Amino acid sequence: MTLGALGVAGAFHLSRAQDFDSGGRGENVARCSSGKPDLVAAVAACTRLLADRHLEDLTQLAALRNRGAFYSEQNDFAQAIADFTAALQLTGNHRIRADIFWNRGLTYFRKGDDADALSDYNDALKFDPKLKSAYIDRAAIYIKRGADDYAVTDLDQAIRLDPNGMEAYLVRASIQVRHGNYVGAIADYSNAIALDAKNAAVWRDRGVAFQAAGDNERAAADAAEALRLDPGISTTHAGLAPDVHSSGKEAQTIAEYSSTIRLKPGEALNFKNRGDRYLASGDHDRAISDFNRAIEIDSKLVSAYLNRGVAYFEESDWNSAIADFTTALAIDANQPAAYVNRAQAFAAKHDRSRAIADFTEAIRIDPHAMVAYRKRAFVRLESGDYEGAIEDYTHVLGSDSKDAEALRGRGHALLKKHDPEGAIADLTAAIALNPRDIVAYRYRALAYDSKRDTRRADKDFAMERQLETAAR
Question: Tell me: the pLDDT tens digits for 211-222?
Answer without folding.
Answer: 878 888 888 888
